[in-house]
Design brief:
The chain contains six helices and seven strands; from the N terminus they run ααααβββαβαβββ. It is of the alpha/beta class and 256 residues long. It folds into two domains: 104 residues; 99 residues, no CATH class. The radius of gyration is 31 Å and the shape is elongated.
Length: 256
């Protein structure tokens, strides 16, 4: 391996692992700054005491040094802690910056992928017609449900919206509901979009009777009404279920 290839490899490794390296640097910097600050305090105290001994004879009533004098005498002792603290702050800021850039890049990638998926769905409906499109949706939803199969001890959330077994494609949760209840929740979300301009995924969950999820505050819809997408699926234990999705997928970055 020549030196150019070696440098490129090292750079790639550092770039890929920069959040971990910066986090480690931050932790190390906090500990180091604390230790250096403690040592600097003892050193500064000795400097002040030595100055008082030099200025005044033993037993003489020595006045206290002014703050300006103390700073002039002791600032060199705090040089290393200051440098360490500055490096720690820089590492913490760097960690935040890297995570922010990666999150923005992921959001942009998701937006592009989501838009293409929406376009493909619309085009499929045009080419296949209603019946074949619904069959395609059923097959895709069944495959997604199979990957996140219902375990015997999986929780089924109870709502006041119906008694049919439903599967939420976005959170992977089973709940008892109905098509009518879900459509009513969709109408609530659409009213919010009309009144306020946007609505988040958690607004839908709240309307349908489910608990909020972490990403539900930043994923949602803006400026356009939404429609539910239903598919007929079968749970792992053989029960018929309704898979619930959306014709327009929630977009990332809502509220930013």
């Amino acid at each position: 391996m020549n030196i150019t290839s070696y440098v490129k490899t090292v750079r790639s490794v550092i770039t890929a692992n920069s959040p971990v390296l910066l986090l480690g640097t931050t932790i190390t910097g906090v500990v180091t700054t604390g230790v250096l600050a403690a040592k600097a305090g003892w050193t500064a105290r000795g400097v002040v005491e030595n100055e008082l001994t030099t200025r005044y004879e033993p037993g003489e009533d020595a006045p206290n040094l002014t703050p300006q004098e103390i700073v002039q005498l002791t600032w060199p002792s705090f040089t290393l802690p200051t440098i360490s603290a500055a490096g720690t702050i820089a590492a913490a800021v760097g960690t935040h910056t890297v995570h922010t850039k990666r999150a923005n890049a992921m959001a942009a990638l998701y937006a592009v992928t989501s838009n293409k998926l929406d376009d493909m769905t619309e085009r499929a409906e045009e080419l296949l017609g209603p019946k074949k499109t619904q069959q395609l949706q059923n097959d895709v939803a069944q495959k997604a449900l199979t990957r996140r199969s219902m375990d015997e001890d999986a929780e089924v959330y109870m709502t006041n919206e119906g008694e049919e077994l439903c599967f939420d494609e976005w959170s992977g949760r089973y709940f008892m509901g109905s098509v009518q209840g879900i459509e009513s929740a969709i109408n609530d979300v659409n009213r919010q979009i009309i009144d306020q301009g946007d609505a988040c995924l958690n607004d839908f969950y709240e309307s349908v009777g489910l608990n909020s999820i972490e990403i539900g505050e930043t994923f949602g819809w803006s400026g356009t009404k939404i429609e539910a997408r239903f598919a007929a699926v079968t749970s792992k234990d053989g029960r018929p279920a309704i898979s619930v999705g959306f014709h327009k997928a929630p977009k990332a970055g809502l509220g930013f």
